Amino acid sequence: MSYKVYILYSPVKDKYYIGQTQDLNNRLAEHNSGESKSTKSGIPWKIVYQKEFDTRSAAMSFENHLKKMKSRKYLESIIKPS
How many domains does the chain have? Predict the structure, then answer.
């Protein structure tokens, strides 16, 4: 089974959220239903980026890389490559 790293965007908060999961559709539904404390205030969220990995450790490594960058400009360069 594959794992996905995803970036969500909230137009309400003008913020991005980075995560990883095996079931992206279910995870998005959880974010948009308010089940996740960290994203509850940004509903509705939309998927703006996703990347698939063969292993959870590879997905987690990439997710951590994105989170360490702490740069909106960097995330947007990945989402909208020129």
Answer: 1
